[in-house]
Fold this protein.
Amino acid sequence: MGFIQGLGTNAVFMIFLTLVCGYAFGRINFAGVKFGTSGVLVMALIFGALGMEVPAIIGTAGLALFLACVGLSAGPSFVTNLKANFWGFIATTVAILVAAGGTVIMAVKIFKLPVDLALGVMAGAMTCTASLATTKELFGDKSAAGVGYGLAYVFGIISVVMFVQLVPKFLKADVDAENAKLPDAPVSKSEGDKSLLTVDGPGVFVVCVAIALGALIGAIKIPLGGGATFSLGTGGGAIIAGIFVSAIGHCGKIKLTAPKSTLMPLRDLGIAWFLLQNGAGAGPKFVSTLKQYGIMLFLVGAVMSVVAIIFAYVVARYLCKMPLFGALGATTGAMTSAPSLNALITVTGNDKVASFYAACQPVATVGLVILPKLLVMMLGS
């Protein structure tokens, strides 16, 4: 009995048991849809509700690892893709902001939610922690924003993960044909340059360089006025750094590219760590918050997520004429949803969509940081 109790308090055992259960759950087919790596989130919610704790650094490091690998994959095609779809990316991001702002106004005016609570629900539905931070700056740490965020965040993740799987099935998309419509990455000149020094064969060194550089970029704080500041954070910095490192290809005689055989498993491990920590953190409060505020608050968050996803996808796909997988990639970026990008990469079978995500995610983050200020000016506090 003492041995079993000891396992329950063994952090390493519980963390990896949750990952094992999460990956296994993610393989279960629900009418043609799988949770994939997001199954870790579901299991982490359950184990978190039972008392498991996961250090915050695991989630932060996991997100940085995932987005650095995404940036390194997207780098070669990022500039080309940005030139071809620049206004489409802007329009998709604006669509998310308009939908998010509109549903917040609806929540306040129709459902009579307090402004801070509605903004917290929006931050969760958009899976944007930076937006929550702005709301807390406006209303203080004791505001109800954190409660709304915690309740809406889980559905915010799951809804986009499901969307990127269901749309291709609903449209009966030919995966190979749709992949062919995505731009191919140009061949890096450094790939065939045998004079360059490879620090380590698998390329883990390059991933570490991108994460370290991303942490520096993410730490830069840009003043927005009124005492508020904006920063990309470790995750946002990591994807920018990954794109930059991959695009330049080398530094002097040191090679700065990593093979897909390294980036793919590290990317999956990173997002699993991120979901593990966030699920475990939300677990204890999820059921109690739902009981306290009722199903209505959950439904408001669900409406915010679904409306924003559909609006952004329609703009990207039909107004801006992006290819199917490109439109879905831009939508995941505009929703700042790293887990859904991972699900989309699994659906498409390649990482070409990463450049669409990378083009929208930083701009959307900036917009979602500024949006609470604009809504408070319109609605009052």
User: Anything to note?
Assistant: The radius of gyration is 20 Å. The longest helix spans residues 260-319. The mean pLDDT is 83. The first strand starts at residue 222 and ends at 225.
